[in-house]
Amino acid sequence: MNSTGVSNPLPITMAVRAGFRRGRIELMQTLTSGMDIFTQFFWPVASLVAVFFLRNSHFQGTGVGLGSLALPSLLGMLVAFTGMFGVAQALAVDREDGTLLRAKATPNGMLGYLIGKIVAVSGMTLVQVVVVLVFGVVAIGGVALDTVGAWVTLIGMLLLGLLATLPIGAIIGSVFSNPRSIGFVSFPIMGLVAISGIFYPITGLAGWLQAIAQVFPIYWLGLGMRSALLPDSASVVELTHSWRQLETVAVLGAWAVLGLLLAPALLRRMARRESGSVVAARREKAMQRAY
Prior knowledge:
- This protein has one domain.
- 74% of the residues lie in helices and 0% in strands.
- The chain is built from twelve helices and no strands.
């Protein structure tokens, strides 16, 4: 209690506030750095260009445009990629340069650090989704947000998608201490993108590929976005000819629960292993690779 008789904020409350402030600052730094903007938007823009060239193609005589199918699927892919790799890459970089060790050394510093990363990555995801959606609607068309239900579904998929993918990113980042090693994780992820119906309906693939795709969140995020942005008639190209919204919520929810159970334990173990000598050795290896 201070001299005015008012209780001081709890350390956890202060850590939460600091985390939100940190996340806001990191997001603004990213959006005002030319190199960071290029890094964050290169693949979304490249993917949007690929979707643009699909705008006049249709799927197997159904009359459903491949461009209009791929645009909401691309939004789902962005949520998955930015959610997973944004957190994973940040954790690995901050472990190498000692940022994580400094956070660990302050009261509730890890809580504030993680909240900051969640705010920054979630904010960047939202910016990417808005930019791609606006340009996609203008240049590609075929999608609409003209009902309250469509907006509710879109916002729900964004929130649920982040809940399902951010913990996965934390798990990946806690396992790999080298930022360069995380790049190798992108190869199997790109394989999942290829079979998850992002650029071509999953019904055009072999049954065993369909089964693999439906285990992971990328397919369900794409499906959820399509259910929000496309008319019901477009569901004719989907498995069971429906949007399967209940299954989408169930699978993404299961991934969210699994990630939220595993991520805290792995992050605590990672934090316990951080020390000054470990960070120094990591820096020395990084300098050796640089030379």
